[in-house]
Amino acid sequence: MNTKKITVTDTILRDAHQSLLATRMRTEDMLPICDKLDRVGYWSLEVWGGATFDACVRFLKEDPWERLRQLRAALPNTRLQMLLRGQNLLGYRHYSDDVVEAFVAKAAENGIDVFRIFDAMNDVRNLETAIRAVKKAGKHAQGTIAYTTSPVHTVEAFVEQARQMAAMGIDSIAIKDMAGLLTPYATGELVRALKAALPELDVAIHSHDTAGVASMCQLKAVENGADRIDTAISSMAWGTSHPGTESMVAALRDTPYDTGLDLQLIQEIGLYFYAVRKKYHQFESEFTGVDTRVQVNQVPGGMISNLANQLKEQGALHRMDEVLAEIPKVRKDLGYPPLVTPTSQIVGTQAFFNVLAGERYKTITTEVKYYLQGRYGKAPAAVDQRLRLQAIGSEDVIECRPADLLPPELDKLRKDVGDLAKSEEDVLTYAMFPDIGRKFLEERAAGTLQPEVLLPIPDGTAVPAQGGVPTEFVIDVHGESYRVDITGVGVKAEGKRHFYLSIDGMPEEVVFEPLNDFVGGAGSKRKQASAPGDVSTTMPGNVVEVLVSEGDLVKAGQAVLVSEAMKMETEIQAPIGGTVKAVHVAKGDRVNPGEVLIEIEA
After folding, report:
1. How many Å apart are CA 483 and CA 544, to the nearest integer?
2. Beta strand pairing call for 598-601 and 568-573
3. Residues 6+ apart with CB under 8 A from 446
4. Angle at alpha carbon of residue 340, lines to 339 and 345, rounded to 5°
5. Per the confidence metrics, is the pTM higher than 0.85?
6. Which residues pair with 553 in a beta bridge?
7. Helix, strand, coil proportions of the chain in percent (round to 5)?
8. What angle (nearest 5°) sits at the alpha carbon of residue 452, between those of residues 437 and 116?
9. In angstroms, what CA-CA distances link 145 with 181, 200, 331, 466, 588?
10. Alpha-carbon distance 429 to 61, whole Å?
11. Which of 87, 397, 465, 509 could be a cystine partner for 94, CB 3.0 to 4.6 Å?
């Protein structure tokens, strides 16, 4: 039995708000409490990685590198930790080795001490370059098991994965239970097996409390030899977040596992974040509490709050249960990948399309096609061969490490972003997210960066506006003036349109009947699809690429444009064969369901 002091990693500055608040906490709300956080004595603070980089650039209009530098300066006595998706880094595709090496070097230089490195497929080949780069930088490389359950995910398989990572030179092992699937006795069994096989390596346990058992899992992990637990300050703990720091410190106090942390100081920090959480109230969702359905659908905490928020923006929140029921079916078809970024988005978005279309795999996302080609690595189990044939036809399936097929790309990225990049960090921001990264750098250069608006509410706190800067009106009714802010994408559902408005700061969802065919999103003049050759989309999103021009001949089923929704790209196909009569969209345009984007004449 373990009888040594247990160390703690707190997730308050990264995974906690990713899980509960759609990753929206701003740096300005982190810095004031850093002095107290730095005095607690944590083994590390998780501050970077995951969706935080994306959210900084996409929504908050903050430079994520500058956030890291500011946190490094404000937390001089505490290790800073990040979550790194192996060969995917922080993006949604595999990068060439030179990009991985450059990113790790710059992250280390800017302040990261501990790199928790995982692969969404648990394919250790996708960890090798990142581990080597971390060791070259003289930092701590934590090899990670993405925990999941399936017929092929056994204790023996996880131990073998740990042995392979140990051979690559990792400094410790993390069990990453991103969806809250661990149960107490399964945790004890897995930790005991890992410590028996690799006694020289510390084992950390990271579990979301979605099913309500994470604190029990951590206790069993500690009793069976775990060295470290991940917690979150109580005001942003539990549910799809993590066990509360104060609770676990109190539970272990005056035992052989005592953390030695100052409970009163942590409680003061908890009160600070209790107030901060109110500021982001609009990004709370009803899906962040305890829900044992996770044991079936396996949706991780960070994904479920973001998915709920995105569904709400699209007027489809009422279909969440259908999507959750579809997710395990898609996962089985894809060979039981663990549901962690990016596979959680890949599976979740495909499940959403299946539900929305009313027909499974009527639309197959680009990322599912890439997955079935083997571009993300080897699936844990056999994939559905009919689906693979439908998605990629007779194309070859990649058998080697996917990054072996990628030529060096850093020089090309530098050239593509050009003078917009003022540093190597800017080049890497562009590399992670080319479209939103370029937009961020352009807006920074023009001095026009505008984060999501915070609308005041009566109790004196504030909530972010849906969809960015709202359209404002002042309406006089019976001598009273009201300020009305309208935001949202105007999604059609059951013949109606959903928008979000705020009257004197009070947010509310509204629905209205369309008056005519020209009822797209704000500023849209596109008519609604009605002819057989009208190309439209089933989800709100942005045009990534237009693949045809007026006058082109196309075949039925041919991809004519690529759109992005919920961070996933999808090819939109021609409904009939014929000649492209008109193209009504360009790259970067916002599009809404039912709008005519391209007209094809038979």
Report:
1. 35
2. unpaired
3. none
4. 80
5. no
6. 579
7. 40, 20, 40
8. 55
9. 13, 17, 18, 36, 37
10. 12
11. 87
Give the number of residues written for the chain.
602
For residue 454, the model assigns a pLDDT of 57
Helix (H) / strand (E) containing 510 = strand 506-512
Q: What are the structure tokens assigned to 551, written together?
A: 């006058």
Cα separations in angstroms, 347 against 3, 182, 307, 341, 472: 41, 20, 12, 10, 38
The structure tokens 């996302």 sit at 365
* Span 437-445, average pLDDT: 96
Using CB atoms within 10 Å of the CB of residue 493, give its burial: 0 to 12 exposed, 13 to 18 middle, 19+ buried. Answer: middle
By the 10 Å C-beta count (0-12 exposed, 13-18 middle, 19+ buried), 73 is classed as exposed
Helix (H, G, I), strand (E, B) or coil at 84: strand
Alpha-carbon distance values, 353 to 311, 321, 357, 361, 468 (Å): 12, 14, 6, 8, 25
Distance (Å, whole) CA 78 – CA 72: 9
Lowest mean pLDDT among 25-34, 49-58, 210-219: 49-58
Structure tokens at 485: 């802010």
Q: How far apart are CA 548 and CA 580, in angstroms?
A: 8
